[in-house]
Design brief:
With 420 residues, this protein is an alpha+beta fold. The chain is 27% helix and 26% strand. The chain folds into 2 domains: 56-314, BirA Bifunctional Protein, domain 2; 334-419, Ferrodoxin-fold anticodon-binding domain (Alpha-Beta Plaits). The termini are far apart. The structure holds adenosine-5'-[phenylalaninyl-phosphate] and magnesium ion (MG). It catalyses: tRNA(Phe) + L-phenylalanine + ATP = L-phenylalanyl-tRNA(Phe) + AMP + diphosphate + H(+). It is found in: Mitochondrion matrix. One of its GO terms (cellular component) is mitochondrial matrix.
């Protein structure tokens, strides 16, 4: 496979597991409505959709398919990417600046599209197969059977192409039931980028259309990595998305591990033909703003972005890409293990959702530490370790024990497992 190296971003190329095939779950505690932005403003005039956050009854509908918790509802409308001095707002602006400098006036910017979208936009128009795991209510938040909280900004690709835009950046909050750890959160922010090329562009290069688009894509994203991070160690992995071919992921070496920061590829031609016009080729990417901000600002835990703590927020300022987060405190973690025989109702995402609903952002990590299946009755026993830790205070034993007791009771009752 091709390996494109440019600037001083060091990239190796290797094959990897599929992405967007196994979307991972997530969750945490409730957030005050005071954090919400009253009137989001779009950058693109025609898309100015100044719209108040949805009311609770629009989101928690009581329909059978609805699986949205209060905790998630409270996050809608917070829009961290609209806050210019917040790391998520700063990184968004830094990416805008890069695209403006490298292709002046080319990319339209949309950042206030409504997060409730149809399953058609979120899945069908992106060619996500009917049986794809990301459609499962285990992975996606359903408002009703045909509406979801978007699980990626790709939900806006087709409609934006239909508006006739040939180069755009769409930023927004996205929602996923996912696992719980320092780099996964049930609500996060993505930026989608799309660029459409016409035949004159690739024929002048002497490359075929796909090769031309793939090279331009990788050069563009490597340039972005260099703009944001300077000399950072990164690598390209081949992967799979239903909506691109070929497809890649970019990982950056951060805190001793490879961290996936974006997915991208050459747009499936059907999407372009149906929603734009024939005779073109395009690339697309979707990047995780929290992940990039973690690397750039040295933020060790994704929960910090939501903390609202002045000791966190005061360390960042619009336009300052040099800030490095200085931890203001380190409080001890508290570990609680819970073992049980699983049930049909059990899934890791369901467990994480339940734990997040009870412990909120005090939950740092939920990890499977032991699993075995008894040869006698074919039953599976799992042991999960839950790490509790506050970002801003010490926790008492009583407090943690009370949370853990509730977690145990609810896990037994709602997920119908047998505690051991
Ligand atoms: C997607 O969401 C694709 N829509 C991206 C894409 C767009 C590919 C256009 C091709 C063309 P994926 O599920 O891998 O892909 O998520 C993209 C990025 O979102 C990840 O690389 C990561 O940076 C971020 N991300 C995913 N899950 C979480 C999470 N739970 N918390 C924080 N960031 C996350
Ligand atoms: Mg991925």
């Amino acid at each position: 496979m091709r390996s494109i190296k440019s600037y001083n971003v060091r990239c190796v190329h290797q094959t990897h597991y599929p992405a967007f095939t196994a979307v991972r779950p997530n969750r945490n505690f409730a957030r005050s409505h005071s954090l919400r932005n009253a009137a989001p403003a779009s950058v693109l005039e025609s898309d100015r959709s100044v719209r108040a956050p949805p009311s609770k009854s629009e989101i928690i509908t009581g329909e059978a398919s609805n699986n949205i918790t209060d905790y998630i509802y409270e996050k809608i409308g917070v829009n961290l990417h609209h806050q210019p001095n917040h790391p998520i707002g700063i990184i968004k602006q830094a990416i805008y600046d890069y695209f403006e400098a490298s292709s002046p006036g080319t990319f339209s910017k949309l950042d206030d599209l409504y997060p409730v979208v149809t399953t058609t936009a979120n899945f069908d128009e992106m060619l996500v197969p009917p049986d794809h795991v990301s459609r499962s209510p285990n992975d996606t938040y359903y408002v009703s059977s045909d509406k979801v909280l978007r699980c990626h900004t790709s939900a806006h690709q087709a409609e934006t192409l239909r508006k006739g835009l040939n180069a755009f950046l769409v930023t927004g909050d996205v929602y996923r039931r996912d696992s719980i750890d320092a780099t996964h959160y049930p609500v996060f922010h993505q930026m989608e980028g799309v660029r459409v090329f016409s035949e004159t562009e690739w024929s002048a290069s002497g490359l075929d259309a796909t090769e031309f688009a793939a090279r331009d894509l990788k050069a563009t994203l490597e340039g972005l990595a260099k703009h944001l991070f300077g000399n950072v160690e990164c690598r390209w992995l081949d992967t799979y998305f239903p909506f691109t071919e070929p497809s890649y992921e970019l990982e950056i070496f951060f805190n001793g591990k490879w961290l996936e920061v974006l997915g991208c590829g050459v747009m499936q031609q059907t999407i372009l033909d149906k929603n734009y016009k024939p005779g073109h080729r395009a690339w697309a990417f979707g990047l995780g703003l929290e992940r990039l901000a973690m690397v750039l600002f040295d933020v060790p835990d994704i929960r910090l972005f939501w903390s609202g703590d002045e000791r966190f927020l005061s360390q960042f300022k619009a336009g300052d890409l040099k800030a490095r987060f200085k931890p203001y405190s380190k409080f001890p973690p508290c570990y609680k293990d819970m073992a049980f025989w699983t049930s049909p109702e059990f899934s890791e995402n369901n467990l994480c959702e339940l734990v997040r609903g009870i412990g909120g952002d005090l939950v740092e990590e939920v990890v499977l530490i032991d699993s075995f299946t008894s040869p006698k009755n074919n039953k599976t026993s799992n042991c999960y370790r839950i790490t509790y830790r506050s970002m801003n205070r010490s926790l008492t034993d009583e407090e943690i024990n009370a949370l853990q007791d509730k977690v145990r009771a609810d896990t037994a009752e709602k997920l119908k497992v047998q505690l051991r």
